[in-house]
Write a structure and sequence with these properties.
The protein is mainly α and 293 residues long. It has 13 helices and no strands. The protein is globular and about 45 Å long. The termini are far apart.
Amino acid sequence: MVGAFEQALLAAMIFVIMLGMGASLTPRDFYLALRRPYGLAVGVVSQYGFMPFIGFLMTLALALPEPIAIGLLIMSCMPGGTTSNIFAYFSKGNLALSVLMTVTSTVFGVILIPIVLVIYAAALDLEIPRENIIATLVILLVPVAIGMGLRKISANIGAVTEFFGSALALFFIAFIAISWIPRNWQFLLTTTPATYFAAIMLGVFGILVGYLFARSLKLHPRNVRTIALETGIQNGPLAVAIIALTFPSDEQQGIMAVAALYSLFIVITSTLVTLIFRRANTAAEQKIPDSLL
């Protein structure tokens, strides 16, 4: 399914993506976030409260087979991806809040992802090697710390690292399209509509629920858009890497199907949502500090 070379390439790409994520932050950002933690709390609730529950309900409603169900559950438990920062920017959202939510959900994910996976896997009677997932997540905190160190040493180096990390996140999707899909074309042709529905609608439902949740809290429209995108846009590359590095090659095809398809379709979904957000009337929206909610 994924050879040794591709596993090494996946690991290298994920390292650079996480490095760029860390380079987007400074210790001062965390200080400001801790002083005004409301927005970050909303993001954590959205990521690890709503999204796994959506994945759980879809698994039950669609009666997905075990490999697909495992893939959907892992995908729904992922933190926010750097792709969400790009779409938050183009949708006129709160970019600083988006970046902070992405990194915070990644850091919290080391603890929350295994817990949420254990709870829902037990409810669905699924076997997931959580120890391997925990080890992978802990290792991925290293490039985040290195990225923050580079930003502290030199703002220019940090900015370049951040750019390459964000760009590589989009390249990763092209890599999946070029590498994974052609080799699994027959599998995708025979994949049930329920699998495609799960892969596409996980992001759609996440964006919708995040939007309604933020609106119900009467947040500023910029932050509503940001939280909606942060909720629905999960870290697809991280999910693919975890599956590739955790499960045996003969089990990966079905498990990786949702993560691979999600990574492709979330770009289309997010683009359409961004166009809708940009067309929304923003005349009455006054500018607010980026790091505040």
